[in-house]
Write a structure and sequence with these properties.
- By secondary structure, the protein is α/β, with parallel strands linked by helices.
- Helix 2 runs parallel beside helix 9.
- The protein is 38% helix and 12% strand.
- The chain has a seven-stranded mixed beta sheet, with helices on both faces.
- It has 15 helices and 13 strands.
- It folds into two domains: 130 residues, Alpha-Beta Complex (Aspartate Aminotransferase, domain 1), CATH 3.90.1150; 242 residues, Aspartate Aminotransferase, domain 2 (3-Layer(aba) Sandwich).
Length: 423
């Protein structure tokens, strides 16, 4: 076999992969029609017939509600906005504790801080990378009011256990399903099992409108509050006759008509795009499954995986090679890899407990009932994975064909054949 590219041999992959792009002529025509109509947005930030937006916003929301099997879908201009709206809509108070995963994008936790509530980080399940129900239970205190669950990499968390846990303790659950639109959990779409959930429409997600998000819920009150927070709630509540005005600080989280027109067409493609991603992942698993010291994704039997990222665990003790050394070799062969993911609790903001201003707000306020630790060691599984053993393939960024999958497999096999050389 050829010498490793790391040591001067020819790389297994000779040309870059195509960038992932699910957009086609349908989206072009849909956007063109909106532009020609002259109605790029129709929201009015007051109680008015256009408070809920224009025709494409409403059509997209109806289509999403039907697709995901929920009563309500509410579009927003980013999934970060969606998370902020969701935390506000469930009635979180300053100082309330909200349990969240450290193994996620930062906005999952900062949406909690936005409302001056306190993130409490629980550890992850070693197989799915999602929040562990047992770790959640250990973190529940008399001050806990909610759980934010991230369906990370494309597979749902164990929602039956988490919802049962929430019911026992009177907690609300928000499902951050940014990375898992179209994934199934016991026959239901991921994101729809919580009190409120939703999906990202960011440009590298399964379907996208450039930026954007979709919130989903079966709760009429939560849906109304999401709509209010999205669109200048404080000036709308009086005219609409809303009695509960807590957290009715509104924003401009509105998604435009062009994005919604594109989203309508993208939603039609979701099933096929997910099936294509699953086929790619299954073919990668067939190649990598026999490599020693490498663990391919675990897919639970009661759910499906849509593979935003293809997660891998390395047994660096058995291999006798560090993760960075293996990643260096793979990248030299032309394989783009994630060397780690996230440990949100170790970011400077949490280590210094500085969010608003320079005085420790909100952690230093009287409404915070107890000291919360963010020291290293509170999430040992997430930390060990991040520091030592996790590696991922970004299926979200490339449009891979069969030949590309074969080339990726060839690169892995080549590197594993030279493991002794890497030592």
């Amino acid at each position: 076999m050829d010498e490793l590219a790391l040591f001067g041999g020819p790389p297994a992959i000779q040309k870059p992969f195509r960038k992932y792009n699910p957009l086609g002529p349908e989206e072009v025509e849909a956007a063109k029609a909106v532009i020609e109509s002259g109605v790029l947005s129709q929201f009015i930030g007051a109680w008015h017939e256009d408070f809920l937006g224009g025709p494409k916003v409403r059509e997209f929301e109806r289509a999403a509600a039907t697709y995901f099997g929920v009563k309500h879908a509410v579009t927003v201009n980013s999934w970060t906005s969606g998370l902020v709206a969701a935390i506000g809509a469930i009635g979180i108070e300053p100082g309330d504790e909200v349990i969240v995963t450290p193994w996620t994008m930062s906005a999952t936790a900062t949406a909690i801080l936005h409302w001056n509530a306190i993130p409490v980080f629980a550890d992850i399940d070693p197989d799915t990378y999602n929040l562990s129900p047992s770790a959640i239970e250990r973190c529940i205190s008399p001050h806990t009011r909610a759980i934010v669950v991230a369906d990370i990499f494309g597979q749902s968390a164990d929602m039956d256990e988490i919802m049962a846990l929430a019911a026992r303790h009177g907690l609300k659950v928000v499902s951050d399903t940014a990375q898992a639109p179209g994934a199934l959990y016991k026959g239901r779409y991921a994101g729809t099992c919580a009190h409120v959930g939703g999906y990202s429409l960011n440009y590298h997600k399964h379907i996208h409108t450039g930026e954007g998000g979709i919130l989903v819920t079966d709760d009429d009150d939560i849906a109304e509050r999401l709509q209010l927070i999205r669109n200048h709630a404080e000036v709308v509540v009086a005219g609409k006759g809303v009695k509960n005005i807590s957290n009715m600080i509104g924003f401009n989280f509105r998604l435009g008509e062009i994005e919604c027109a594109i989203g309508i067409e993208q939603l039609k493609k979701l099933k096929d795009l997910v099936a294509s991603r699953q086929r790619i992942a299954e073919n990668i698993t067939k190649i990598l499954g026999d490599l020693p010291g490498l663990k391919t994704p675990v897919v639970m039997p009661d759910r499906s995986h849509v593979y935003y990222i293809y997660p891998i665990q390395l047994d660096i003790v058995a291999l006798g090679v560090s993760r960075d050394r293996i990643c260096d070799a793979l990248e030299a062969e032309g394989v783009s890899v994630y060397r780690r993911y996230q440990n949100i609790h170790l970011l400077p903001m949490y280590q210094k407990k500085l969010a608003y201003g320079n005085e420790g707000f909100p952690w230093n306020q009287p409404f915070c009932k107890r000291e919360i630790s963010y020291k290293k060691g509170i999430c040992p599984i997430a930390e060990a994975y991040n520091d030592l053993t996790f590696m991922g393939l970004g299926l979200c960024v490339h449009d891979l064909g069969d030949a590309d999958v074969e080339a990726i497999g060839k690169a892995f096999v080549k590197v594993w054949a030279h493991i002794g050389r890497l030592r």
